[in-house]
Amino acid sequence: MFPIPSSVFLTRGVGIHRYPLTAFEYALREADIEQQNLVSVSSILPPHCRLIPREEGVSTLSPGEITFSVMARTETNEPGRRIAASIGLARPTDKTLYGYISEHHGFGMTESEAGDYAEDLAATMLASTLGIEFDLDAGWNERKRVYEMSHLIVDSLSLTAAAEGAANGNWTCVIAAAVFRFDQPSTGKS
Fold first, then answer.
1. Of the candidates 72, 105, 33, 69, the residue with the CA atom closest to the CA atom of residue 179
2. Which CATH superfamily does the domain covering 7-181 fall into?
3. Most CB within 10 Å of its CB: which of 10, 63, 87, 160?
């Protein structure tokens, strides 16, 4: 049985290269997670899991480590095509409850549109789990006000990587990720 993650950080990156795999590698490098053996997991934010700054999370990584993450990835080799990868995060006020992480892989959206979509998705999943009544057909801003007024959701946010396909037809890759970390066990040494 794996331990439950104690913290999570968000990161993003953009990479461009003539080969799609290398463009992905460059996006991972920009996100500072290229040295990890990344394992994709689904979208639950564990209870008591702290959101930490990217720099703090990256500083705990070791090359070759098995690293669990929720990742969004989009790529294109069409010049000028708009692409975005977003991670949305919604945390409940009660830290003993779990939250949600959403990933969105999109085409034709701006960074702001993709971020709003991912945040809305995570917050809506959490709201439905918490029993918050809302109009699914209402706009995101209206639903966000309902969620905030319920005092059951402490916050929601998103992080997005967006780009346009390279003019020369090279592959452009965008990624956004929520990377889980575990408390380091004490060795008992001083």
1. 69
2. Pyruvoyl-Dependent Histidine Decarboxylase, subunit B (3.50.20.10)
3. 87
